[in-house]
Amino acid sequence: QAQFVESGGGLVQPGGSLRLSCAASGFTLDYRAIGWFRQAPGKEREGVSCIFRSRSNRDYTYYTDSVKGRFTLSIDNAKNTVYLQLNNLKVADTAVYYCATRRDCAGYDTGRDFDSWGQGTQVEVSS
Length: 127
Hints:
With 127 residues, the chain is mainly β.
């Protein structure tokens, strides 16, 4: 059964860093989009970023404006895992972070047609 398991969340102070992991099982990460999403209490789910590894092994990455320059996506094929490095964290980044997959990253921010959602990992940014 295809699924993701997220990990790496925690409590950090503003300006701190975390690295979130999204480990895939039941499928490989090649030729598919992996999206990261977050949901804060009382708010709608938000698309944070998306990565697509092409057949030529080139990675295409996309980020929502609020995290550009602070968050970075990467893939470790050997571990079948996608990482989201979170730097210079802000209180507004507090949320449960999820990963999911679908065919491509176009319009990823809607979350439409993504599946294999993980259980999420909690990120809390507080002083």
